[in-house]
Design a protein that fits this description.
This protein has 620 residues and is α+β, with helices and mostly antiparallel strands. It contains 19 helices and 16 strands. Helix 6 runs antiparallel to helix 9.
């Protein structure tokens, strides 16, 4: 929990000896290494430098931070930043070099959804900003570089380019959560986040099923224990959604302050509902009345942070929640241990559940405090432990109701069956939605590159295909040709017969071009209006002549309106041999000039001409 995740440091004064130790651990001449795109590090320790902004100096600008001497920037020893309760702003920077001949797409991942403010810059060698970002969980989700539960900054590194990435972290009122930093190439990032999403989908699905199960049992059997346990599960899943950043992407995308409040409110709600459930489940009012009274006082005290959270006193809220939570958990663990020693079966099951949660909490906070390695298991230890705890507590609840109400055994079997059916139904619905979404994405991708009227590729695809074709060298067909086709007197045709007839004519022309140009290296496009483009390869100019004569013959046979003249077109064909050094724009402009020459000389004709070589007289 965010209040739990801040347990690592309650006293701000601890920060000073830690920073002093870091400063003495490195000599001033030590600089972070430049990261190569060919060997991205798994951990950014030693690759990223850290700079602390003094609390009372006022907000620094980028220029101010970069003007600080290199000795003020401290290379990190860990890839997870831990500042805890701290009013300072912090800067990080690193350099990346691309030694390859291809551009590389990288993503700097700050995997902490609850970081209040992040300003980031991508700089060139002269420290001129190339890209800038301003985001954070206290700003609307629309300001994030892309939809992601935490904060990720994508950028390109061109061939043989060296860039510098600089980021500034700041808080609302002096409370940081752990900031795990990583630098990944784009495919690796999305692969990791896809796996993460599947894990969280399973996790939230499992908790939701447990919540519904206990809620149904509580309502059906009028057992308040099940209802209070359902409230505990509900607070936990809502807190977890806020803590993991999912609420900020959904219902609270435009209300970031409320999302921050939700983290504290549901975090306090967890301990209030847990205290009520524990008192009833272990019957503490009769077995241990003094401990029961103390838990009631602590639960009531938990209301104070909820009120403060609504007033947006964020750091103060968690400075109160942390000690209260520690006291509640300590007392619960003590009474469960004592009652287990007394031989009470429900207390033993309850204690077993808490052992799993405590072990997972030690693993998680050990990672936060860099006491254990940061792995997928330790990063998700709290989720795994809480899921096991909830499963074990659910078993304890089932055991209790079995002992108290044996006559309802058949009803329990029905509920278990319904749980399985709901699980299968949920899986089926997810699979169905996933397939539908995949088909929708494929359709949108196809529509984005296709002309809706003719079914041909559109101008966007034309430009990329022409650029690719200019680069390719094909031995069998050494001539690269670009033909620009424009229907003659199409506007008059539209005015006389109407736009539906004009659309039908364009569709027939599109079908004719698709039939005529079917080879693997033939590409047909509708560039716009009545203008079409063809990128193709052939072996000689005589072949081009043959193709164009056949096209004009077939074009004249297109069936239009009975009283309409035969359809004609003007065509400009520019071609270049393989060895020519030509740009797509030069090829297009030459074909376009030939097209307009046809128009000027009477239409219904085509002109074929090789693109002049550099410094060659165009008349030749």
């Amino acid at each position: 929990m965010r209040n739990m995740s801040s347990m690592r440091t309650v006293i701000p004064a601890i920060r000073t000896p830690i920073l002093a130790w870091i400063l003495t651990a490195f000599v001033s001449s030590l600089n972070a290494e430049v990261i190569s795109t060919q060997a991205l590090p798994e951990r950014l320790s030693g690759e990223v430098e850290l700079l602390q902004e003094p609390e009372n100096s006022g907000p620094w600008s980028l220029t101010t931070a970069l003007s600080r001497p290199d000795s003020a920037w401290i290379p990190l020893t860990e890839s997870v930043l831990n500042f805890s309760f701290d009013s300072s702003a912090y800067w990080v920077r690193f350099k990346v070099h691309n030694p390859t001949a291809q551009p590389v797409r990288l993503i700097f991942d700050v995997a902490q959804p609850l970081q209040d403010y992040i300003d980031a810059w991508l700089l060139d060698n002269s420290n001129t900003p190339i890209q800038t970002w301003q985001t954070g969980d206290r700003l609307p989700a629309s300001q994030r570089p892309f939809v992601y539960r935490a904060f990720a900054f994508p950028f390109n590194v061109e061939p043989d380019q060296q860039i510098q990435f600089v980021a500034r972290f700041n808080t609302h009122d002096g409370l940081y959560d752990a900031l795990p930093l990583s630098l990944l190439d784009q495919p690796t990032f999305f692969k990791q986040k896809d796996q993460e999403s599947r894990w969280f989908g399973f996790y939230y699905g499992a908790i939701t099923i447990l919540l519904l199960y206990n809620l149904l049992v509580g309502v059906a059997n009028r057992e308040r224990d099940f209802l209070f346990y359902s409230v505990y599960l509900g607070c936990f899943v809502l807190w977890n959604l806020a803590f993991r950043g999912y609420l900020a992407l959904g219902p609270l995308a435009s209300a970031p302050i409320i999302n921050n409040m939700a983290t504290a409110i549901f975090g306090a709600g967890i301990f209030i509902s847990l205290t009520i459930f524990t008192r009833r489940f272990l019957a503490l009012n009769t077995r241990m009345p003094r401990a029961d009274g103390l838990l009631v006082i602590l639960a009531v005290a938990m209301v104070i942070p909820i009120v403060l959270a609504m007033l947006d006193y964020y750091a103060l809220v968690f400075s109160m929640i942390i000690p209260l939570a520690l006291l509640i958990m300590g007392i619960i663990l003590a009474v469960a241990t004592y009652l287990s020693w007394q031989g009470i079966r429900t207390a033993r099951i309850y204690l077993l559940a808490w052992v799993f949660l405590i072990i997972s909490a030690f693993a998680y906070y050990g990672r936060v405090l860099s006491l254990v390695p940061s792995t997928w298991l330790t990063e998700n230890a709290l989720n795994i432990g809480s899921l096991i705890e909830m499963l074990v507590l659910s078993l304890a609840m089932a055991d209790r109701i079995r002992a108290l109400k044996l006559e309802h055994l058949q009803d329990q079997a029905y509920l278990i069956t319904r749980e399985r059916e709901m699980n299968q139904e949920l899986k089926t619905q997810v699979d169905t939605k996933t397939r539908a979404l995949t088909l929708l994405v494929e359709r949108f991708e196809q529509e984005s590159i296709t002309d809706a009227l003719t079914g041909l590729k559109n101008r966007r695809t034309f430009e990329s295909t022409l650029e690719l074709s200019v680069r390719q060298k094909v031995r069998d067909n050494p001539l690269l040709c670009l033909a620009l086709i424009d229907l003659d007197y199409f506007k008059n045709f539209n005015d006389q017969f109407g736009h539906p007839a004009g659309d039908a004519l364009l569709q027939q022309l599109g079908s004719l071009l698709q039939r005529r140009f079917q080879r693997s290296d033939d590409h047909v496009f509708r560039i716009g209006g009545e203008e079409f483009g063809i990128v193709f390869r052939t072996e000689s100019t005589s072949a081009i002549n043959t193709i164009m004569h056949q096209f004009q013959t077939e074009l004249a046979t297109i069936a239009t309106q009975p009283e309409a003249d035969p359809v004609t077109a003007s065509v400009g064909i520019a071609y270049v041999p393989n060895e020519s050094m030509v740009t797509p724009n030069e090829l297009y402009e030459h074909a376009d000039a030939l097209l307009y020459q046809c128009k000027a000389e009477g239409r219904n004709q085509f002109r074929i001409q090789q693109l002049p070589k550099p410094n060659q007289d165009t008349a030749g």
